[in-house]
Amino acid sequence: MSEQRRSSSPRAKASRNAARGGAQQQAAERKAAEQRRNRSIAQAERRTTTDSVRASEPAPTAAGRARITDSPTPSSYQDVPEGYRAGFACFVGRPNAGKSTLTNALVGAKIAITSGRPQTTRHTVRGIVHRPDAQLVLVDTPGLHRPRTLLGERLNDQVRATWAEVDVIGFCLPADQKIGPGDTYIARELAAVRRTPKIAVITKTDAASRQAVGEQLLAAVELGKEAGIEWAEVIPVSAVAGDQVGLLADLLAKQLPLSPPLYPGGELTDEPEQVMVGELIREAALEGVRDELPHSLAVTVEEMLPREGRPKNRPLLDVHAVLYVERQSQKAIVIGTGGSRLREVGTQARRQIEALLGTPVYLDLHVKVAKDWQRDPKQLQRLGF
User: Fold this and answer.
1) pTM, rounded to two decimals
2) Which tens digit of pLDDT belongs to each residue from 115-128?
3) CATH 3.40.50.300 segments of the chain
4) Which of 10, 91, 95, 185 could form a disulfide with 118 if both were Cys (CB 3.0 to 4.6 A apart)?
5) Quick check: 64 and 53 in contact, CB under 8 A?
6) How far apart are CA 85 and CA 205, in angstroms?
7) Are strands 317-325 and 298-306 parallel, antiparallel or unpaired?
């Protein structure tokens, strides 16, 4: 009886109304954010190789800046030379094996973010290499690892789905690290993909001695024998120094099927600009943070639209993005004292985005907590995983 009186008291009613109002406000904010995101996606360019970007001067971080007139890719089927090849190759390996850096080096532009932190790549990224004799579409994949979260399981599923569909697989083994259980596990899984040729790529040779590189080459051959893989090639490369990157492209192209080009000349990636912008923000946020934070960090671009009322010769692109973390303590790390850390992230990311898009950018960043999002199916879906 007393419980009933307490629940019907004015104070209890006010509390319930406040809670209901707060929930409605949160739902309205989520709906508004979703509408902004959908409107932005509908209006934004879906390719990085728009005419405005192609007309811009090349920049170190720009993707899609190749000029069609300079591309060696045939412009029509009638121009395809005899013996022309085109197809897909993917790089696989454990986290931080140098896959993204190698992809960028082969494409000649930054289409995948890089970091010293493991598991930086979270989705497959396609980069297109144009050659007079072939078109090589590189698929950079997340590092295959022992998953501890639902996100990890889904990233591993992406890797397996990718290598089941490509024409050649490059298995990246860092020269500065001994072959370990993770490499053995991946090799055994690759052995089940029987019909696809595989190339052992010894990466990061600039970070190891000649002796260490030689030992790793022998270890890679032995790893193939143990796993039941007959390597089509075994090659050491350095993406940072540019050593044998061109030779690797030759070896990958040789494994592709006879085919006309799959993408128009000038295309360096088919990643939507909005996705690439979000990745550049995440890359900037990964610099200098504590070890536990990288896996907990996700970025969504809520809105990316030209500023209205600006003169044509002075355009400005408004980019509104949210950085998600899993705990309140992580939010404080990203923001920094007095917002200093977040400002650094914004400055660094804005420069990269402007180089990518070839236009001035106003970047608005916010940090929110999405508790344990790596383990929550609904939150993973909302964040694009």
Assistant:
1) 0.63
2) 544 444 455 677 88
3) 64-254
4) 95
5) yes
6) 29
7) antiparallel
